Amino acid sequence: MKKLALLFAGLSLFVATGCNDDDNTPMEYPIVGTWQPVKQVVTVVPVSGTPVSDGISFDTTCQKTSRWVFKEGNTGKRTDNGDSATPGQCQATFDRNFTYTYDKSSKAVEMKYQGIVAPDKGKVVTLNDTTLNIAFEDTTDPTEYKSVTYTLKRIPQ
């Protein structure tokens, strides 16, 4: 009976330790791809005042055609579309090529738009197979802190 109990204890120990899952490496998703902006949140925090956040959803038919395209080789194109003065027609409200850098370890991103001197510097908050959240900070005004966070969804190609 003692041998049977020892055998059962040994098998239990083997089963408990034999199923060790050492694959705890988090999945890394590429920033490269085509993304549709879904939401923009602008937050302003004055040095002496109340913080204000304003959310803007990209929910019109025209806004849903907006795209941010991150290509291999650190280039891309951003096109924001909006409603034109003519009903039922869309027009580009922002249409620029850009170069970018993305550091996976620190999540830092910098986008330099063609024709605009100062680059947008920010951080990737979320990057997975379907969602990209990028927060850009503006600290040029010493009297207030401003950030703009974009939520984008991946468009399968």
Question: Care to describe what's here?
Answer:
Helices cover 11% and strands 52% of the residues. Strand 6 and strand 7 form a beta hairpin. It has an 8-stranded antiparallel beta barrel. With 157 residues, it is mostly beta strands.
Q: Which parts are unreliable, with pLDDT below 50 for 5 consecutive residues or more?
A: 3-11
Give the tally of β-strands: 9
Residue share in β-strands:
over 45%
Number of helices: 1
Helix content: 10-25%
Q: What does the largest sheet look like? A: 8 strands, antiparallel, barrel
Strand line-up of the largest beta sheet: 1-3-4-5-6-7-8-9
The end-to-end distance, rounded to whole angstroms, is 64 Å
Run of helices and strands: HEEEEEEEEE
**Average pLDDT over all residues:** 88
Over all CA atoms, what is the radius of gyration? 24 Å
Gross morphology: globular
Alpha-beta classification: mainly beta
Helix-strand layout with pairing:
Layout: H1 2-18, E1 33-46, E2 52-57, E3 67-71, E4 75-83, E5 90-102, E6 108-113, E7 120-127, E8 131-138, E9 144-155
Antiparallel strand pairs: 1-2, 1-3, 1-9, 3-4, 4-5, 5-6, 6-7, 7-8, 8-9
Question: Could you give a quick summary of the protein structure above?
Answer:
This protein is mainly beta. Helix content is 11%, strand content 52%. A hairpin with a 5-residue loop joins strand 5 and strand 6.
Features:
11% helix; single chain; 1 helix; eight-stranded antiparallel barrel; 157 residues; globular; mainly beta
